[in-house]
Model the fold of this input.
Amino acid sequence: MNWRLFLMLPILFLANPGLAQNLEKGKEINSVCAGCHGELGQGGSRGEYPRIGGQRAAYIVDQLKSFRARKRINIPMYPYTQERELPDEDIKDVAAYLGSIELPTKWPVFKESDDALTRLTLTERVMIIPRVTGNLANGEAIYQKQCVTCHSKNGMGRGMFPMLVGQYTSYLMRQMEKYLKGERPHDDVEVGGVLNALKAEDLQDILAYLTSIQE
Done:
């Protein structure tokens, strides 16, 4: 036995929790989610449904359980997340599968031998979020001061905190408005919170900055 590999396995599983889950089963479960979020979890073209493909698995698990417990109110999601429909292990499997999906942000370079189906399949995976207007310098300053601790410097998130870059800006704005109205909890502060101290133009500037750093 390769003892070095044996000793490394626990580290690998901790770094990549999806390795411990059944991705094939997760893909099968995702066929239900695909009705709204798309086969690759790319969401709605206008942000009516969020992108979940490539999202952090820990965040997806947390949100699905929040829907179930009605900590996050979303009536359409409620029946799909009940224990009898989606037990905890299934939640982990579908979250791991969705987290494993790669959605490139650059158009593919086709080979002459690629047929029409191959070209279409590769094109459908591309996820490019259009840039939005705003003060990039202000957006960057606010993001690096207020958001980077949880969502990371590159906007890809940490732990149970979601990836923001590559998400539909209309969806993000809608969620920020819900945070401000108290319809969704944003952080652990009972009164106020990070977003409450920001102006409407600040929120727009943050979104502009996020679209500018998509790689």
